[in-house]
Amino acid sequence: MPTPLARTSAEAHLYLELHGCDCGERAFAPETAVVVLEDGELGSRYTYACPRCGKKHEVTFRLPADPTPPGPGFTYGGPEPSELLDAGEWLAVADAYASQAPADPAGLSPEATERARALLTRAAAAMDEVLKFVPEGADSVPDAGGQADPGRFRRTRLTAVRDAYAGLVAQL
Ligand SMILES: [Zn+2]
Description:
Elements: H1 9-19, E1 31-36, E2 42-49, E3 56-62, H2 87-100, H3 110-131, H4 155-171
Antiparallel strand pairs: 1-2, 2-3
Helix pairs in contact: 2-3, 3-4
Zinc ion binds near residues 21, 23, 52 and 53.
């Protein structure tokens, strides 16, 4: 299997968190090193020992040949769809981040506001990732019929949810 591409370190960290350790631990502080892959391309190797069970992990990702330039906002990667997470996983990530954010921004402390901003910014970025799976000219993620709620994978609905998260960030 070719080494999967991690477009950004945020995407690589998210992948590690989602997959976790066999013991169930999901919070890691990996060390990273740039390595040369078998085909001569550059990769990024993440190594860490699980803080709960001690199991050693080593995961290598391909680095983008053309790294995503730092844009004005947070992003998990360039315009191409993720090779690490599928559309359903990105939607679950967006749900998870958004569900941790307070529904009402009124009266939040500065720290809580900052945390809400980080959560909703990531939720919106994860929705952007789902949208990257919708082909040009199509109105839905292909094969969304296999998902529990295929209607959530329609372009109009994905865009509406993404814009709602971005709108909440703007209110903070
Ligand atoms: Zn473990």
